[in-house]
Protein backbone atom coordinates (compact mmCIF):
# COMPACT_ATOMS: atom_id res chain seq x y z
CA UNK A 1 0.00 0.00 0.00
CA UNK A 2 2.71 2.49 0.92
CA UNK A 3 4.76 1.56 -2.09
CA UNK A 4 1.84 2.57 -4.40
CA UNK A 5 1.22 5.97 -2.80
CA UNK A 6 4.62 7.42 -3.73
CA UNK A 7 4.18 7.21 -7.52
CA UNK A 8 0.81 8.90 -7.32
CA UNK A 9 2.27 11.88 -5.43
CA UNK A 10 5.18 12.12 -7.91
CA UNK A 11 2.75 12.14 -10.85
CA UNK A 12 0.68 14.92 -9.34
CA UNK A 13 3.81 16.96 -8.66
CA UNK A 14 4.92 16.63 -12.27
CA UNK A 15 1.54 17.73 -13.56
CA UNK A 16 1.53 20.81 -11.34
CA UNK A 17 5.07 21.70 -12.40
CA UNK A 18 4.21 21.45 -16.11
CA UNK A 19 1.07 23.56 -15.63
CA UNK A 20 3.04 26.25 -13.76
CA UNK A 21 5.65 26.58 -16.47
CA UNK A 22 2.95 26.64 -19.17
CA UNK A 23 1.18 29.55 -17.47
CA UNK A 24 4.50 31.35 -16.93
CA UNK A 25 5.43 31.08 -20.62
CA UNK A 26 1.97 32.35 -21.70
CA UNK A 27 2.16 35.32 -19.34
CA UNK A 28 5.60 36.26 -20.65
CA UNK A 29 4.32 36.04 -24.23
CA UNK A 30 1.41 38.35 -23.48
CA UNK A 31 3.66 40.80 -21.65
CA UNK A 32 6.11 40.81 -24.57
CA UNK A 33 3.24 41.46 -27.02
CA UNK A 34 1.90 44.29 -24.91
CA UNK A 35 5.33 45.99 -24.71
CA UNK A 36 6.09 45.96 -28.50
CA UNK A 37 7.48 49.40 -29.67
CA UNK A 38 4.92 51.74 -31.27
CA UNK A 39 5.09 52.67 -34.96
CA UNK A 40 7.23 55.74 -35.76
CA UNK A 41 5.23 58.90 -36.33
CA UNK A 42 5.76 61.17 -39.33
CA UNK A 43 4.14 64.49 -40.11
CA UNK A 44 2.56 64.72 -43.55
CA UNK A 45 0.79 67.21 -45.77
CA UNK A 46 -1.66 66.35 -48.50
CA UNK A 47 -0.62 67.33 -52.00
CA UNK A 48 -3.38 69.50 -53.40
CA UNK A 49 -3.98 71.10 -56.77
CA UNK A 50 -4.12 74.88 -56.57
CA UNK A 51 -4.13 77.88 -58.86
CA UNK A 52 -0.87 79.81 -59.12
CA UNK A 53 0.45 82.49 -61.43
CA UNK A 54 3.68 81.42 -63.10
CA UNK A 55 6.34 84.00 -63.78
CA UNK A 56 9.86 83.89 -65.17
CA UNK A 57 12.76 86.15 -64.27
CA UNK A 58 14.86 87.01 -67.31
CA UNK A 59 18.03 89.13 -67.30
CA UNK A 60 18.04 92.14 -69.57
CA UNK A 61 19.21 95.69 -70.15
CA UNK A 62 17.48 98.98 -70.50
CA UNK A 63 17.70 101.03 -73.67
CA UNK A 64 16.50 104.50 -74.61
CA UNK A 65 13.01 104.83 -76.02
CA UNK A 66 14.33 107.36 -78.55
CA UNK A 67 17.95 108.16 -79.34
CA UNK A 68 19.31 110.79 -81.72
CA UNK A 69 22.92 111.52 -82.62
CA UNK A 70 23.26 115.21 -83.44
CA UNK A 71 25.42 115.85 -86.52
CA UNK A 72 25.96 119.03 -88.53
CA UNK A 73 24.47 119.14 -92.01
CA UNK A 74 26.77 121.92 -93.20
CA UNK A 75 30.47 122.53 -92.61
CA UNK A 76 31.75 125.46 -90.60
CA UNK A 77 33.27 126.77 -87.40
CA UNK A 78 31.22 126.29 -84.23
CA UNK A 79 30.63 129.78 -82.88
CA UNK A 80 28.60 128.92 -79.76
CA UNK A 81 27.11 126.06 -77.78
CA UNK A 82 23.63 126.80 -76.45
CA UNK A 83 23.02 123.95 -73.99
CA UNK A 84 24.32 122.60 -70.70
CA UNK A 85 25.71 119.09 -70.84
CA UNK A 86 23.49 116.56 -69.05
CA UNK A 87 20.42 118.79 -69.19
CA UNK A 88 16.99 118.26 -70.69
CA UNK A 89 16.49 119.80 -74.13
CA UNK A 90 13.30 120.26 -76.11
CA UNK A 91 12.72 119.36 -79.72
CA UNK A 92 13.70 122.32 -81.92
CA UNK A 93 15.91 123.93 -79.28
CA UNK A 94 19.15 125.47 -80.66
CA UNK A 95 22.17 123.41 -79.59
CA UNK A 96 25.04 124.84 -81.66
CA UNK A 97 25.54 127.90 -83.83
CA UNK A 98 27.83 127.36 -86.83
CA UNK A 99 29.36 130.48 -88.40
CA UNK A 100 26.55 131.69 -90.69
CA UNK A 101 28.57 134.30 -92.64
CA UNK A 102 29.42 132.22 -95.75
CA UNK A 103 25.92 130.80 -95.91
CA UNK A 104 24.38 134.23 -95.51
CA UNK A 105 26.53 135.45 -98.41
CA UNK A 106 25.44 132.50 -100.55
CA UNK A 107 21.84 133.25 -99.75
CA UNK A 108 22.21 136.94 -100.59
CA UNK A 109 23.94 136.10 -103.89
CA UNK A 110 21.17 133.69 -104.89
CA UNK A 111 18.53 136.23 -103.92
CA UNK A 112 20.22 138.91 -106.07
CA UNK A 113 20.41 136.59 -109.06
CA UNK A 114 16.74 135.78 -108.62
CA UNK A 115 15.87 139.48 -108.55
CA UNK A 116 17.84 140.05 -111.76
CA UNK A 117 16.10 137.19 -113.52
CA UNK A 118 12.72 138.38 -112.36
CA UNK A 119 13.52 141.91 -113.61
CA UNK A 120 14.23 140.66 -117.15
CA UNK A 121 11.14 138.50 -117.34
CA UNK A 122 8.38 141.17 -117.89
CA UNK A 123 10.15 142.74 -120.90
CA UNK A 124 10.69 139.38 -122.57
CA UNK A 125 7.09 138.42 -121.86
CA UNK A 126 5.81 141.65 -123.47
CA UNK A 127 8.07 141.21 -126.52
CA UNK A 128 6.85 137.66 -127.01
CA UNK A 129 3.27 138.95 -126.90
CA UNK A 130 3.91 141.58 -129.53
CA UNK A 131 5.61 139.11 -131.85
CA UNK A 132 2.64 136.79 -131.48
CA UNK A 133 0.34 139.56 -132.78
CA UNK A 134 2.76 140.44 -135.63
CA UNK A 135 2.99 136.79 -136.59
CA UNK A 136 -0.78 136.65 -136.91
CA UNK A 137 -0.68 139.66 -139.30
CA UNK A 138 2.24 138.25 -141.27
CA UNK A 139 4.53 141.10 -140.28
CA UNK A 140 7.24 138.77 -138.87
CA UNK A 141 8.41 135.36 -139.80
CA UNK A 142 7.82 132.25 -137.75
CA UNK A 143 11.54 132.06 -137.07
CA UNK A 144 11.60 135.54 -135.53
CA UNK A 145 8.66 134.67 -133.29
CA UNK A 146 10.24 131.37 -132.23
CA UNK A 147 13.47 133.16 -131.23
CA UNK A 148 11.61 135.69 -129.08
CA UNK A 149 9.37 133.06 -127.51
CA UNK A 150 12.40 130.87 -126.73
CA UNK A 151 14.14 133.79 -125.02
CA UNK A 152 11.03 134.34 -122.89
CA UNK A 153 10.86 130.68 -121.86
CA UNK A 154 14.57 130.69 -120.98
CA UNK A 155 13.95 133.70 -118.76
CA UNK A 156 11.13 131.82 -117.01
CA UNK A 157 13.42 128.84 -116.44
CA UNK A 158 16.15 131.10 -115.08
CA UNK A 159 13.71 132.59 -112.58
CA UNK A 160 12.71 129.09 -111.45
CA UNK A 161 16.40 128.09 -111.16
CA UNK A 162 17.27 131.04 -108.96
CA UNK A 163 14.16 130.49 -106.85
CA UNK A 164 15.43 126.98 -106.13
CA UNK A 165 18.92 128.36 -105.46
CA UNK A 166 17.52 130.84 -102.98
CA UNK A 167 15.58 128.07 -101.21
CA UNK A 168 18.68 125.87 -101.06
CA UNK A 169 20.75 128.74 -99.68
CA UNK A 170 18.02 129.47 -97.13
CA UNK A 171 18.01 125.83 -95.99
CA UNK A 172 21.81 125.75 -95.64
CA UNK A 173 21.71 129.00 -93.72
CA UNK A 174 19.14 127.42 -91.40
CA UNK A 175 21.43 124.41 -90.91
CA UNK A 176 23.98 126.69 -89.25
CA UNK A 177 21.61 126.62 -86.29
CA UNK A 178 21.92 123.00 -85.13
CA UNK A 179 18.70 122.13 -83.28
CA UNK A 180 17.53 119.18 -81.18
CA UNK A 181 15.67 116.62 -83.32
CA UNK A 182 13.90 115.13 -80.26
CA UNK A 183 13.21 116.05 -76.66
CA UNK A 184 15.31 114.28 -74.05
CA UNK A 185 18.46 114.30 -71.97
CA UNK A 186 21.56 115.43 -73.84
CA UNK A 187 24.98 114.04 -73.01
CA UNK A 188 28.42 115.55 -73.25
CA UNK A 189 29.46 117.70 -76.19
CA UNK A 190 32.08 116.08 -78.40
CA UNK A 191 33.16 119.38 -79.96
CA UNK A 192 33.93 122.75 -78.43
CA UNK A 193 33.45 126.27 -79.63
CA UNK A 194 35.97 127.13 -82.35
CA UNK A 195 36.16 123.57 -83.69
CA UNK A 196 35.51 122.84 -87.35
CA UNK A 197 32.38 120.79 -87.87
CA UNK A 198 31.93 119.01 -91.18
CA UNK A 199 28.70 117.96 -92.81
CA UNK A 200 27.59 114.45 -91.81
CA UNK A 201 30.80 113.79 -89.85
CA UNK A 202 31.12 110.30 -88.30
CA UNK A 203 31.45 111.59 -84.73
CA UNK A 204 28.23 113.21 -83.47
CA UNK A 205 28.31 116.61 -81.85
CA UNK A 206 26.23 115.20 -78.99
CA UNK A 207 23.66 112.48 -78.30
CA UNK A 208 20.12 112.99 -77.06
CA UNK A 209 18.26 110.13 -75.35
CA UNK A 210 14.64 109.93 -74.32
CA UNK A 211 14.02 107.42 -71.53
CA UNK A 212 10.57 108.21 -70.26
CA UNK A 213 9.25 105.73 -71.17
CA UNK A 214 12.20 103.35 -71.48
CA UNK A 215 12.71 99.98 -73.16
CA UNK A 216 13.85 96.78 -71.45
CA UNK A 217 15.20 94.11 -73.81
CA UNK A 218 15.49 90.56 -72.44
CA UNK A 219 16.52 87.33 -74.17
CA UNK A 220 14.37 84.20 -73.83
CA UNK A 221 15.67 80.79 -74.84
CA UNK A 222 13.81 78.96 -77.57
CA UNK A 223 13.62 75.93 -75.25
CA UNK A 224 11.59 77.89 -72.71
CA UNK A 225 9.51 79.43 -75.49
CA UNK A 226 8.58 76.02 -76.94
CA UNK A 227 7.83 74.61 -73.47
CA UNK A 228 5.56 77.55 -72.75
CA UNK A 229 3.69 77.15 -76.05
CA UNK A 230 3.14 73.42 -75.44
CA UNK A 231 1.76 74.02 -71.94
CA UNK A 232 -0.64 76.63 -73.29
CA UNK A 233 -1.74 74.32 -76.11
CA UNK A 234 -2.37 71.48 -73.65
CA UNK A 235 -4.45 73.73 -71.41
CA UNK A 236 -2.04 73.47 -68.49
CA UNK A 237 -1.52 77.22 -68.59
CA UNK A 238 -4.26 79.79 -69.08
CA UNK A 239 -3.41 83.11 -70.69
CA UNK A 240 -5.37 86.13 -69.46
CA UNK A 241 -5.16 88.74 -72.23
CA UNK A 242 -4.01 92.19 -71.16
CA UNK A 243 -2.90 90.97 -67.72
CA UNK A 244 -0.48 88.67 -69.50
CA UNK A 245 1.28 91.67 -71.05
CA UNK A 246 2.15 93.19 -67.68
CA UNK A 247 5.84 92.88 -66.78
CA UNK A 248 7.54 93.49 -63.43
CA UNK A 249 11.12 94.64 -62.94
CA UNK A 250 13.89 94.02 -60.41
CA UNK A 251 16.76 96.51 -60.23
CA UNK A 252 20.47 95.74 -59.94
CA UNK A 253 20.38 95.90 -56.14
CA UNK A 254 17.50 93.42 -56.01
CA UNK A 255 14.83 95.99 -55.17
CA UNK A 256 11.53 95.99 -57.01
CA UNK A 257 10.78 98.75 -59.49
CA UNK A 258 7.49 100.35 -58.37
CA UNK A 259 5.85 100.59 -61.81
CA UNK A 260 4.75 97.75 -64.09
CA UNK A 261 5.69 97.69 -67.73
CA UNK A 262 3.99 96.30 -70.80
CA UNK A 263 5.27 93.55 -73.07
CA UNK A 264 5.44 95.26 -76.45
CA UNK A 265 6.62 92.51 -78.78
CA UNK A 266 8.53 89.25 -79.10
CA UNK A 267 11.12 89.13 -81.87
CA UNK A 268 10.48 86.65 -84.68
CA UNK A 269 14.15 85.92 -85.37
CA UNK A 270 16.28 83.56 -83.28
CA UNK A 271 19.85 84.64 -82.56
CA UNK A 272 21.89 81.70 -83.93
CA UNK A 273 24.80 82.34 -81.55
CA UNK A 274 22.73 82.23 -78.36
CA UNK A 275 19.56 80.36 -79.35
CA UNK A 276 17.37 83.10 -77.92
CA UNK A 277 14.70 85.52 -79.05
CA UNK A 278 14.40 89.05 -77.72
CA UNK A 279 11.43 90.25 -75.70
CA UNK A 280 10.92 93.99 -75.47
CA UNK A 281 8.94 95.65 -72.69
CA UNK A 282 8.30 99.35 -72.20
CA UNK A 283 8.23 100.90 -68.71
CA UNK A 284 7.15 104.35 -67.51
CA UNK A 285 10.14 106.19 -66.05
CA UNK A 286 8.89 109.54 -64.73
CA UNK A 287 11.60 109.89 -62.06
CA UNK A 288 14.45 108.75 -64.33
CA UNK A 289 15.30 105.87 -61.98
CA UNK A 290 16.08 103.71 -65.00
CA UNK A 291 18.97 104.81 -67.20
CA UNK A 292 19.95 103.34 -70.57
CA UNK A 293 22.34 100.41 -70.23
CA UNK A 294 21.32 99.33 -66.72
CA UNK A 295 21.24 95.59 -65.91
CA UNK A 296 17.80 94.51 -64.69
CA UNK A 297 15.68 91.38 -64.30
CA UNK A 298 12.29 91.37 -65.96
CA UNK A 299 9.49 89.36 -64.32
CA UNK A 300 7.47 88.02 -67.24
CA UNK A 301 4.06 86.48 -66.61
CA UNK A 302 3.68 83.10 -68.33
CA UNK A 303 0.11 82.31 -67.37
CA UNK A 304 -2.13 80.71 -64.74
CA UNK A 305 -1.60 77.06 -63.75
CA UNK A 306 -4.89 75.87 -62.27
CA UNK A 307 -3.61 72.39 -61.39
CA UNK A 308 -0.32 73.25 -59.71
CA UNK A 309 1.08 71.04 -56.94
CA UNK A 310 3.49 72.73 -54.52
CA UNK A 311 5.53 71.00 -51.82
CA UNK A 312 8.08 72.40 -49.34
CA UNK A 313 11.65 72.41 -50.61
CA UNK A 314 12.77 70.65 -47.43
CA UNK A 315 10.84 67.51 -48.45
CA UNK A 316 12.94 66.96 -51.58
CA UNK A 317 16.31 65.23 -51.74
CA UNK A 318 18.57 64.17 -54.59
CA UNK A 319 20.00 60.79 -55.52
CA UNK A 320 23.57 60.41 -56.86
CA UNK A 321 22.28 61.00 -60.39
CA UNK A 322 20.63 64.26 -59.40
CA UNK A 323 17.05 62.98 -59.59
CA UNK A 324 14.59 64.67 -57.23
CA UNK A 325 13.08 62.33 -54.63
CA UNK A 326 10.44 62.68 -51.93
CA UNK A 327 8.85 60.32 -49.40
CA UNK A 328 5.10 59.71 -49.26
CA UNK A 329 2.81 57.54 -47.13
CA UNK A 330 0.39 55.31 -49.04
CA UNK A 331 -3.08 54.24 -47.99
CA UNK A 332 -1.70 51.31 -45.97
CA UNK A 333 0.68 53.46 -43.95
CA UNK A 334 3.73 52.28 -45.91
CA UNK A 335 6.50 54.73 -46.78
CA UNK A 336 7.13 54.99 -50.51
CA UNK A 337 9.87 56.87 -52.34
CA UNK A 338 8.71 58.88 -55.37
CA UNK A 339 10.89 60.30 -58.10
CA UNK A 340 9.49 63.67 -59.12
CA UNK A 341 10.20 66.28 -61.77
CA UNK A 342 10.55 69.84 -60.52
CA UNK A 343 9.48 72.75 -62.67
CA UNK A 344 10.77 75.70 -60.63
CA UNK A 345 11.07 77.21 -57.17
CA UNK A 346 8.24 79.39 -55.90
CA UNK A 347 9.35 81.00 -52.67
CA UNK A 348 10.27 78.19 -50.27
CA UNK A 349 8.33 75.59 -52.27
CA UNK A 350 8.88 73.50 -55.38
CA UNK A 351 6.39 73.40 -58.22
CA UNK A 352 6.07 69.72 -59.13
CA UNK A 353 5.72 69.01 -62.84
CA UNK A 354 5.22 65.23 -62.50
CA UNK A 355 5.60 62.35 -60.05
CA UNK A 356 2.96 63.42 -57.51
CA UNK A 357 -0.81 63.38 -57.66
CA UNK A 358 -3.44 65.27 -55.73
CA UNK A 359 -4.11 63.43 -52.46
CA UNK A 360 -0.60 62.02 -51.99
CA UNK A 361 0.66 62.38 -48.41
CA UNK A 362 4.13 63.90 -48.42
CA UNK A 363 6.33 63.47 -45.34
CA UNK A 364 7.43 66.88 -44.05
CA UNK A 365 8.82 65.85 -40.64
CA UNK A 366 10.39 62.60 -39.47
CA UNK A 367 11.77 61.53 -42.84
CA UNK A 368 15.19 60.80 -41.30
CA UNK A 369 13.65 58.23 -38.93
CA UNK A 370 12.04 56.12 -41.64
CA UNK A 371 12.94 54.40 -44.86
CA UNK A 372 10.93 53.14 -47.84
CA UNK A 373 8.85 50.06 -47.00
CA UNK A 374 8.40 50.86 -43.30
CA UNK A 375 5.03 51.09 -41.64
CA UNK A 376 4.45 54.45 -40.00
CA UNK A 377 1.79 56.46 -38.29
CA UNK A 378 0.94 59.52 -40.42
CA UNK A 379 0.05 62.67 -38.49
CA UNK A 380 -1.31 65.73 -40.34
CA UNK A 381 0.80 68.86 -40.23
CA UNK A 382 -0.10 71.37 -37.52
CA UNK A 383 -2.95 73.59 -38.62
CA UNK A 384 -3.91 71.27 -41.44
CA UNK A 385 -7.12 69.31 -41.80
CA UNK A 386 -5.64 66.91 -44.31
CA UNK A 387 -7.03 63.36 -44.27
CA UNK A 388 -4.26 60.89 -43.51
CA UNK A 389 -3.83 57.25 -44.46
CA UNK A 390 -4.91 54.70 -41.90
CA UNK A 391 -1.79 53.17 -40.35
CA UNK A 392 -1.47 49.39 -40.23
CA UNK A 393 -2.51 47.86 -36.89
CA UNK A 394 0.32 47.12 -34.49
CA UNK A 395 0.96 43.47 -33.44
CA UNK A 396 -0.29 44.18 -29.96
CA UNK A 397 -3.53 45.61 -31.26
CA UNK A 398 -3.93 42.64 -33.53
CA UNK A 399 -3.42 40.32 -30.61
CA UNK A 400 -6.10 42.16 -28.63
Q: Provide the CATH top-level class of the largest domain.
A: Mainly Beta
**Mean pLDDT metric:** 85
Unreliable sequence segments: 1-10, 384-400
CATH topology category name of the largest domain: Elongation Factor Tu (Ef-tu), domain 3
Examine the secondary-structure arrangement and name the CATH architecture of the largest domain: Beta Barrel
Spatial extent as radius of gyration: 47 Å
Number of strands: 20
The gross shape turns out to be elongated
Count helical runs. 6
Order of helices and strands: HEEEEEHHEEEEHEHEEEEEEEEEEH
Walkthrough of the structure:
The chain is of the alpha+beta class and 400 residues long. 31% of the residues lie in helices and 35% in strands. It is built from six helices and 20 strands. It has helices at 2-34, 101-137, 142-175, 222-233, 241-244, 395-399, and strands at residues 41-46, 49-70, 76-81, 88-89, 94-98, 177-179, 184-186, 196-197, 206-221, 237-238, 246-250, 261-266, 276-283, 295-312, 317-318, 324-329, 335-346, 349-354, 361-365, 377-380. The strands form two sheets. It has a six-stranded antiparallel barrel. Strand 15 and strand 16 (324-329) form a beta hairpin. The longest helix is centred in the N-terminal third of the chain and has 37 residues, at 101-137. The model is unreliable at 1-10 and 384-400 (pLDDT under 50).
Amino acid sequence: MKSCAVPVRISRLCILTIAFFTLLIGACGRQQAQTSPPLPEVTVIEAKQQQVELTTELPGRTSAYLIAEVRPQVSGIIKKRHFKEGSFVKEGQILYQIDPAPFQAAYDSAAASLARAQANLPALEARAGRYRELLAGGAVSQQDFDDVDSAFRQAQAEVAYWEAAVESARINLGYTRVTAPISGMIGKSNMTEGALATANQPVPLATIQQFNPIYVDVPQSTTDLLRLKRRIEKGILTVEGEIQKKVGLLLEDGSEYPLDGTLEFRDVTVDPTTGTVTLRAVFPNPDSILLPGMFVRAVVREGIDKQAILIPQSTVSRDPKGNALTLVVDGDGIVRQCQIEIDRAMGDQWLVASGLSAGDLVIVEGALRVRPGMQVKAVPSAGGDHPVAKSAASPAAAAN
